[in-house]
Amino acid sequence: DSGVTQTPKHLITATGQRVTLRCSPRSGDLSVYWYQQSLDQGLQFLIQYYNGEERAKGNILERFSAQQFPDLHSELNLSSLELGDSALYFCASSGPATQETQYFGPGTRLLVL
Amino acid sequence: DQQVKQNSPSLSVQEGRISILNCDYTNSMFDYFLWYKKYPAEGPTFLISISSIKDKNEDGRFTVFLNKSAKHLSLHIVPSQPGDSAVYFCAASAFPGTYKYIFGTGTRLKVLA
Q1: Residue A42 and residue B106: Cβ atoms within 8 Å?
Q2: Contact A33, A25 (CB under 8 A)
Q3: pLDDT one digit per residue (tens) for chain B, 113 residues
């Protein structure tokens, strides 16, 4: 158990809909990262937050947005969903002393029908 | 353009023998590398890391070697155990302060008893 929690574990929705994925980092970790893993692909970095502020952006679509709240939990919002958005979405966190090591949650499996 | 490549999608090894997983990269600015292990239905788990100022790092049965001139790193597992059967991802970062990692597509290791 990495200490990073993600909800929900599974999500099934329809095209055009909007969903919110939630992540709670390990206790004391200030950084949260979001990754997308499509079938047979590596993990694609989406976005990083550090203590509530956006720190780095990857190949995140404009239909996707994220935020980190004062209690350090983070949410990833996916809107106008398309079939191709079906994937595993992972959240990771890292601490101020060991920022180079990211600890991953179990992921949310999103299926868009 | 895949900046981090794991060219072997799968590898089978006998229990007790050495497992060698390879990773190639194209960006000479990458300065920090990690290996993660992933079991089905779980998030990736951090295994071992190496900074570009080193060419080897050991942690128990796991050793990572970095050859900067060849832009190649490898993970050695000795001796291999059936519990090591998982997908292994290498990741690289060239973004100090953000740790925005680029992941390979993974190698599925099967250790045969």
Answers
A1: yes
A2: no
A3: 679 999 999 999 999 999 999 999 999 889 899 999 999 888 999 999 999 999 999 999 999 999 999 999 999 999 999 999 999 999 998 766 667 889 999 999 999 99
